[in-house]
Description:
Layout: H1 2-22, H2 31-36, H3 42-73, H4 77-105
Amino acid sequence: xxxxxxxxxxxxxxxxxxxxxxxxxxxxxxxxxxxxxxxxxxxxxxxxxxxxxxxxxxxxxxxxxxxxxxxxxxxxxxxxxxxxxxxxxxxxxxxxxxxxxxxxxxxxx
Length: 109
């Protein structure tokens, strides 16, 4: 029971950080990325990275809900559905974040 509550909390934290990034507050990102982004690109960069973070957080939260349903119903098909949401959300969210970092920072490093 504690496992799905922990993943739900992690998902909610990711969503809150993503919303903060979308508002232009990119202080949660590494200092290298904050310094490399110009002032006029800060808002579009924050929106793209924030959207990717929100997508990752939502997929973690959805996985947590399906994990809880599996725990209470003993039907393992829900964990497979939740895992599909988790993997697809994390992959798509990371692709969005990495593409935004490459675009606005002129590379990952």
